UniProtKB/TrEMBL annotation, chain B:
Keyword Transmembrane: yes
UniProt KW Transferase keyword: no
Protein name per UniProt: ABC transporter permease
SUPFAM superfamilies: MetI-like (SSF161098)
Taxonomy, superkingdom: Bacteria
Domain ABC transmembrane type-1: 98-287
CDD domains membership: TM_PBP2 (cd06261)
InterPro entries found in the cross-reference section: BP-dependent_transpt_permease, MetI-like, MetI-like_sf, OppC_N
Alphabetized UniProt keyword annotations: Cell membrane, Membrane, Peptide transport, Protein transport, Transmembrane, Transmembrane helix, Transport
Length: 315, 301
């Protein structure tokens, strides 16, 4: 009873600490992003365009408040960002927050689909290849994983477009009108993510299957399938859960390239368009949202970790 | 007396020779090192020597010779890999593009490696507040959407090769820092470091003579991973138009230029991607192999 309460307290303290840390990281990300966008060149000049007169550039600098000192600009922006007001786009009529609310679900959905597909394929393959390390199945799967890791995702996307879109004509080449548009990008994301998940499952399973408790369970005469799935896989999954969360963050963060290839109107595409139009309020907001999403995922993954593995809370 | 000394040193030489033979066998017995290493050397040679062997210049344009197909789909041996939309020899551009990709990759890991290793060692060696600051810094870096930031900086500052290397270098240091920190942490309280400290060696001297040589293997493995990463991200940036600029040949840029002709000349896209895949594959295999040989505990991870 007493120790249970103490453990609960430790957990609360752990959660609070991780939360504060995530918040601090997010604030730091927003500062670094803000400074990088303004320090790498003359933003007003970029907004005005290369052929703009000096007077126009000066007017834009004044109108958008780009003449103020950096800390002042940041604090004004942050003050509004806290209330959910991320400013106005220089191109779209909508608020930046509205734009992001429209585009974020598309990118998140695609990322979740890709991760889901990767888990669906990667977990069984990793488990099966761990049963006989260095057997023929293991070697084939490892080779596929190594090849999958070596392919640049945007190139793989174009290859799939050539094969399924142009040569076979099965699937649409670009756009975001129906579910068919999501098949190829999901496949690319899955192929890019699967190797990591598969390798991690495999190495985790190899360790678990060697462990004493698995040998005991086997000696007791439990069925091999139930030993593998109920005992070993459950423990091998702990690191996979942590990596899966981080991978989702990476998928969403890397959406710029893939959404451009497939013409999907998600957050990445929005960022890409906005960069090329010097629509910096949007770029700023996307950096913040992606950074926030990553922080959220690592926070959740830390929590899951702490629940699954009590030793972590003690530290 | 002289005879015994002679034979003793002979035995020593024999064991040294046997050890060396054993080490060579260990390296050559690893399929990752052999396959990845030879593929990597082959690519290095091809990009270093290749451009001098190809008779065409990668910048020579010719409107009458545009979009010639490669030799296996009805082209001539004059342009083995065909020509691009401006009539430039695709083989020459591939080889020059590889040279550029490797140059960008090596420069990037140099920048990232020096930066990441320095702060990683400091964090692991000094611990305390420095360690906390570095760990926080790593978390911030990981939470930043790297490709997006790189694109935005390249747009605002105007794309150039120097900028590309600097931006990539400052975005890819995290793994160097993580590994350097963790391994330094393990070494910090080892006997030889404590002994060196007791003898009055300065921190800088201990780091340089006792710590750095001992974490070099792990750093080399990270360097191979990051080399592959740098090549892939640089290609993605060039593909999006904010990395290497035309008319320079670069694999990512070549894929972007070939996108318009995807229907009738798909080789414009498949060939540079295949080249990139081979390079990344070679580097990854080599890295895995080096890790397996130098750190047998982590085998197969």
């Amino acid at each position: 009873m007493h120790s249970a309460r103490r453990e609960g307290k430790a957990l609360v303290r752990y959660v609070a600490r991780q939360f504060l840390l995530s918040l601090a990281v997010l604030i730091a990300v927003s500062i670094v992003g803000f400074v990088l966008l303004r320090a790498s060149g003359d933003l007003a000049q970029r907004v005005a365009g290369a052929e703009a007169q000096a007077a126009d550039v000066a007017r834009i600098r004044l109108a958008y408040g780009l003449d103020k000192p950096l800390p002042v600009q940041y604090l004004e922006w942050a003050q509004r960002a806290v209330t959910g007001d991320l400013g106005r786009s220089l191109f779209f009529p909508e608020n930046v927050s509205t734009l992001i609310a429209q585009r974020l679900p598309i990118t998140l959905g695609l990322g979740a689909l890709g991760l889901g597909a990767a888990l669906l394929i990667g977990l069984p393959l990793g488990t099966l290849s761990a049963l006989k390390p260095n057997g023929w199945f293991d070697r084939v799967v490892l080779t596929v994983a190594v090849l999958g890791q070596a392919m640049p995702p945007f190139w793989l996307g174009l290859l799939l477009i050539i094969l399924f879109g142009l040569n076979l004509g099965w699937l649409p080449v670009s756009g975001s009108s129906g579910w068919q548009n999501l098949v190829l990008p999901t496949a690319v994301l899955a192929i890019a993510t699967m190797p990591t998940i598969m390798r991690l499952t495999r190495s985790g399973m190899i360790d678990q299957l060697r462990a004493d408790y698995v040998r005991t369970a086997r000696a007791k005469g439990l069925k091999p399938v139930s030993v593998i799935v109920k005992h070993a896989l459950r423990n091998a999954l702990i690191p996979v859960v942590a990596i899966a969360a981080v991978q989702l963050g990476a998928l969403v963060g890397g959406s710029v390239v893939l959404e451009t290839v497939f013409g999907i109107q998600g957050l990445g595409y929005l960022a890409w368009e906005s960069i090329n139009r010097a629509d910096y309020p949007v770029v700023q907001a996307v950096v913040l949202v992606l950074g926030g999403f990553y922080c959220l995922l690592t926070f959740v993954s830390d929590l899951l970790h702490a629940f699954l593995d009590p030793r972590l809370r003690e530290q | 007396m002289a005879v015994t000394e002679l034979s003793a040193s002979g035995v020593e030489a024999d064991t040294a020779k046997a050890e060396r033979a054993h080490a060579i066998r260990r390296w050559l017995g690893n399929s990752g090192v052999v396959i990845g290493g030879s593929l990597f050397i082959l690519i290095l040679l091809a990009t270093l020597v290749g451009p001098w062997l190809v008779q065409h210049d990668p910048f020579d344009q010719s409107l009458v010779k545009r979009l010639r197909p490669p030799v296996w789909s009805g082209g001539s041996w004059e342009f083995v890999f065909g020509t691009d939309h401006l009539g430039r020899d695709y083989l020459a551009r591939l080889l020059w593009g590889g040279r550029l990709s490797l140059l960008i990759g090596f420069c990037t890991i140099l920048v990232a490696g020096i930066f990441g290793t320095t702060i990683g060692i400091c964090a692991g060696y000094f611990g305390g507040r420095i360690d906390f600051a570095v760990r926080f810094f790593i978390m911030v870096r990981l939470a930043m959407p790297a490709v997006l930031i790189a694109l935005a900086i390249a747009f605002i500052a105007g794309p150039s090769l120097h900028l590309l290397v600097m931006v990539l270098g400052l975005l890819l240091w995290d793994r160097f820092a993580v590994v350097a920190r963790a391994t330094t942490l393990q070494l910090r309280n080892s006997e030889f470091v404590v002994a060196a400290r007791a003898m009055g060696c300065s921190n800088l001297m201990i780091i340089r003579r006792d710590i750095l040589p001992n974490i070099l293997n792990q750093l080399i493995v990270i360097a191979t991973v990051e080399l592959a990463n740098a090549v892939l991200i640089a290609a993605a940036l060039s593909f999006l138009g904010l990395g290497v600029q035309p008319p320079l040949p670069d694999w990512g840029l070549m894929i972007a230029e070939g996108k318009q002709y995807i229907l009738f000349s798909p080789y414009l896209i498949t060939l540079p991607g295949l080249a990139m895949m081979l390079l990344v594959l070679a580097v990854n295999l080599l890295g895995d192999g080096i890790r397996d040989v130098t750190d047998p505990e982590a085998k197969g991870r």
